[in-house]
UniProtKB/TrEMBL annotation:
Keywords: Cell membrane, Membrane, Transmembrane, Transmembrane helix, Transport. It is a multi-pass membrane protein. It comes from the Bacteria. This is MFS transporter. The chain crosses the membrane at residues 12-33, 53-73, 80-105, 111-131, 138-157, 169-189, 201-220, 232-248, 268-292, 304-321, 333-350, 362-380, 464-483. The keyword Transmembrane helix applies. Residues 492-512 are annotated as: Disordered. The keyword Cytoplasm does not apply. Residues 15-488 form the Major facilitator superfamily (MFS) profile domain. One of its GO terms (cellular component) is plasma membrane. It is found in: Cell membrane. GO terms for molecular function: transmembrane transporter activity. The lineage of its organism: Bacteria, Bacillati, Bacillota, Bacilli, Bacillales. PANTHER family: MAJOR FACILITATOR SUPERFAMILY MULTIDRUG TRANSPORTER MFSC.
Length: 512
């Protein structure tokens, strides 16, 4: 009897392991593609504004599908969701690997996103219900260690593959791994799911798709089309209107697609806001640093990937440590220290020159990664810890959705600020240079002067964007002082008795 009880309460490590491998290859796929974009542009003869849709389209699909993940997790078993998600991801990977025209490549990329969007909320939900609140930090730390190896090896591996093979090898490399994990999941995942009598509200799905999709599309297009474009502000306005309608409808539903009542729990609401603000600031480094290293400094894709590797490895190894520290001291100290590091290092990136050493860049990025490891998982876990078990799927779906939105907004904001600043700086530097001319310059001198002015203008634009990102990160730092250790809320059972959320949480997942 006791042995049976012990087995029933034991976390389903087999299920978690399979889900983690699936999430890992999804993360790895994302980090592989960024370095290959210039090669894809050249091979398919497309412009930068077009190739960016490989990233933007991925974010759009994520933003649309993640809200539906809460419904799927409640309605279907882990086995069925995982097989469907990884199946879509595998089909998308195969399609992209054999694409010889951009529309087919984009279609494959969006199929990948449709699977990837479901994998992460699914894994997070299984982790939350499998571990008691006092052990959750350490479990999330190990989870972070495994997933952070993807950005650690992704850029360098991508640089090496692109230098020696065709860019399609990036997808061919992922395909057999995805199929093997899919087969392992098919034979090993045996969890059972009680029938849940809930239906998908298709009107909510449409409102959510137009709302989140419109906002993401508008902000993602702003960098190339400009904020004054009707296509940009029009889609953003439509997105906001439908988002308000979507939220209003969710409060009227007994079984909402996304349960916005999670925001009545103060620590979850605070962690959600901090995560969004941090994501906006951190995307500055992911977008601006490659532009600086490759466009201004002429650093090769391979070396640009190697530059990011020490920071990613540090972040991976810091995750279990911060998880254990979170269990002992809570999230506030970790968040305050981590965000202080992020603010200081982001400010250091706003002081880049055309002669900043490679070693200096590695050190700043690595220290910044330590700060990221101290913030992201502890803040998110502290917020989710306050939710009752029944709201875990909605909490994880909400966090993932809003982080996608924040990332898209942060990307568009930083790129737009950089572009506008570069343009204004180029005019000022050009006028200043013309005023100091004492004799008519030669054509060679004019060409050299223009090149120097554009490089300096772009550098000033990048530095100014990092400065704005510093202020954004400072907002998160101030909010971090209000974090308190979460206590899991109680939920009411059918008999009207309060019961600690999470009791017998692993009942359905323990059979593996």
């Amino acid at each position: 009897m006791d042995q049976t009880k012990k087995q029933a309460s034991r976390p389903p490590y087999g299920v978690i392991a399979v889900l983690m491998v699936g999430a890992f290859i999804s993360f790895l796929n994302n980090t592989l593609l960024n370095i290959a974009l210039p090669s894809i542009m050249k091979d398919l003869n497309i412009e930068a504004s077009t190739v960016q849709w490989l990233t933007t389209g991925f974010m759009l699909v994520n933003g649309v599908l993640i809200p539906i993940s809460a419904f799927l997790i409640q309605k279907f078993s882990v086995r069925h969701i995982f097989l469907a998600a990884l199946g879509l991801f595998s089909i998308g990977t195969i399609t992209a690997g054999f694409a010889h025209v951009f529309p087919l490549l984009l279609a494959g990329r969006m199929l990948q996103a449709s699977g990837s969007a479901i994998l992460m909320p699914l894994l997070m939900n299984v982790m939350l219900v499998s571990f008691p609140i006092e052990k959750r930090g350490a479990a999330m730390g190990v989870f972070g260690l495994i997933l952070m190896f993807a950005p650690a090896i992704g850029p360098t591996l991508s640089g090496w593959i692109v230098e020696h093979y065709d860019w399609r090898m990036l997808f061919h490399f992922i395909t057999p791994i995805a199929i093997i994990v899919l087969l392992i999941g098919f034979f090993l995942l045996k969890d059972k799911k009680e029938k849940v009598n809930i239906r998908l509200d298709f009107l909510s799905v449409i409102m959510s798709s137009i709302g989140f999709g419109g906002i993401l599309y508008g902000f993602s297009s702003a960098g190339s089309k400009g904020w004054d474009s009707p296509e940009v502000y029009g889609t953003i306005m439509i997105g906001i209107i439908f988002l308000f309608l979507f939220i209003w409808r969710q409060f009227k539903q007994n079984a909402p697609l996304l349960n916005f009542r999670v925001y009545k729990y103060p620590m979850f609401a605070l962690s959600s806001v901090i995560s969004m603000v941090v994501n906006m600031a951190l995307f500055s480094g992911m977008i601006l640093l490659p532009i600086y290293t490759q466009n201004l400094r002429g650093i090769s894709p391979m070396d640009a990937g190697l530059l990011l590797m020490p920071g990613a490895i540090l972040m991976a190894f810091m995750s279990p440590l911060t998880g254990k520290l979170f269990d002992k001291i809570g999230g506030r100290i970790l968040a305050v220290v981590g965000l202080t590091i992020i603010v200081v290092t982001t400010y250091a990136f706003s002081k880049l020159t055309l002669h900043t050493t490679y070693t200096h860049l590695i050190i700043i990025y690595s220290v910044r990664s330590i700060g990221m490891a101290m913030v992201m998982m502890p803040v998110s876990t502290n917020g989710l810890n306050q939710l009752p078990k029944r709201l875990y799927p909605h909490g994880t779906a909400m966090n993932n959705t809003l982080n996608q939105v924040a990332g898209a907004i942060g990307t568009a904001l930083m790129v737009t600020i950089m572009s506008n600043r570069t343009e204004s700086e180029a005019k000022e530097l050009g006028n200043a240079a013309m005023q100091h001319l004492t004799a008519p310059p030669t054509k060679a001198a004019i060409a050299e002067m223009k090149q120097h002015i554009m490089m300096q203008a772009m550098l000033n634009g990048i530095n100014f964007s990092f400065l704005i990102a510093t202020f954004i990160a400072s907002v998160a730092l101030v909010l971090a002082f209000f974090i308190k250790r979460s206590k899991q809320a109680e939920e009411i059972e059918g008999n009207g008795q309060a019961n600690p959320a999470g009791k017998n949480a692993t009942k359905n997942l323990a059979e593996n």
